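Protein in question passed on here:
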Amino acid sequence: MEYSLTHVRLLVEDYKACFKFYSETIDLKVSWGNENTGYAELDTGDASLAIFTRNEMAQVVGNAALPASAVCQDRHTVILRVPDVDKAFEDLRGKDVTFVTEPQDQSDWGIRTAHLRDPDGNLIELNCRLT
């Protein structure tokens, strides 16, 4: 059996805010859906980033009666490679995006990173390779 990653799907509470964040603020190209569909796919290269309402997915897998969230450390991070972390940081900060961390070298990882959150609180890492 051969597998290939096609999507990472974020299950969100505030679909419209997340749709606008990824399509307008982050400026990912929408390949399917719109702000009213409750599901959208955005191009990120070889795999897509999809957003879907958390409640709809819970209905599909039969766990809608369970609590929607709990206070915990982050369990996932969306990683977006950019050509220049510092430029992306300045561009997004100009769009009133609040960052969790400013650009910094992660020498042990071989990358430069900055971290932010989407409107639903999902952690996003922007990174580029150290030269």
About this structure: The mean pLDDT is 92. The chain is about 20% helix and 35% strand. The two ends are 37 Å apart (CA to CA). Residues 41 and 50 are 4 Å apart (CA to CA).
